[in-house]
Amino acid sequence: MREYHDEEWGVPLFDDRKLFEFILLDGMQAGLSWRTILHKRENFRKAFDEFDPEKIVRYTPAKVRKLLADPGIIRNRLKVQAAVTNAQAFLSVVEKGGAFHPYIWGFVGGRPIQNKWKTLWQLPCRSRQSDLMSKSLREIGFRFVGSTICYAFMQAAGMVNDHTVDCFRHSEIAKPAGRMT
User: Fold this and answer.
1) Whole-model pTM?
2) Could you tell me which residues are beta bridge partners of residue 161?
3) 151-180 confidence digits (pLDDT tens)
4) Contact indicator for 160, 127 with CB cutoff of 8 Å
């Protein structure tokens, strides 16, 4: 957990494959702790073909059954099937726009929102942007993308800097605050 916080969480991310991984994992987390998902991340990576949407979109019912029998991942039928559906929706966005990151980063104007929370209790579980993202993602076919899941995704992908101001990562991440490329 510490390594994830110190090196990955909240860092602005523009790599489409990694963004797809985060959406898939955040959807799997629904109703569970992030710790559970993080501990199973490597298992997910192997089971879901390195989060390759081109491969996931071609999963057969036999492959889905194999995933549902894999104790190394979350064996929830709806979530596993959502991964396939989300791969289809993700590839649709890429086909229409050439890439996923311009679409998803559009919800924050292409630049991370720099919050200045003093305590963890101030962190919201959703925002206007996550509400809009959730609605848009669902309209194009994504599943397990409610506003709270979208906000967690935004935090993980660095679309919002929700490190508290006393955390060493807050200023480190705020420095580049680069724009989407």
Assistant:
1) 0.92
2) 114
3) 999 999 999 999 989 988 988 888 754 455
4) yes
